Please model this.
Amino acid sequence: MSLAVLAPVVLSIGFLIAVARVTIYRPRYKHIEDVIRFVRRLEIPELAKLVDSGEEWGLRNLVSVREFRDVQRERIRLAYEYLRRISHNAEVIQTWVVELYEHIKYKTREEFTEQDYLIWELVEVSTELRVYTVFALMRVLGWMVFRVDLWPAKAVPRLTGLRVMGGVDVVKKYELLIAVTTSLSRTYGQKYYEELIAAL
Model:
């Protein structure tokens, strides 16, 4: 089978899968219980350490080139995993709060309650994080595909470049997502607040 025939078939199948995912099999996180059940744990200090410039400098200057390549390969894979968790959690939270936003979208700002402001802020923060993770994941996936850890040490990309992309500081923005989400969960009761804190 030639590439001219195979490429359109593969692209068509990919397109149909994407359409099915968005329309038919779209996740439905409508309740806070769904958020608690489906979010993935991510330790913010570990994420901050991964994209810390001091940590990167130490690796580049205090270990051998061979050891640096091994460690950097693992760090790139870890960055990919953390970004996937951020993307997943932002999607779960966004899907939930967009459902809540439908009830307040016609209110004026003067009519907003504290809960309404939290919902509005969560829609904004989760959207920013999802856009950030699309580009950051493409970047890290490119590094993994092209095995940048095998390049000369000076040419290996720095993970510190992932911390801020497109004006979004991923560590601060994810901390904000967690803080606002847990604040909103407190309006549902202490039980949900504690369960969400434990899940995130």
Notes: The two ends are 48 Å apart (CA to CA). Strands lie at 164-165, 168-169. The chain has a mean pLDDT of 90. The longest strand covers residues 164-165.
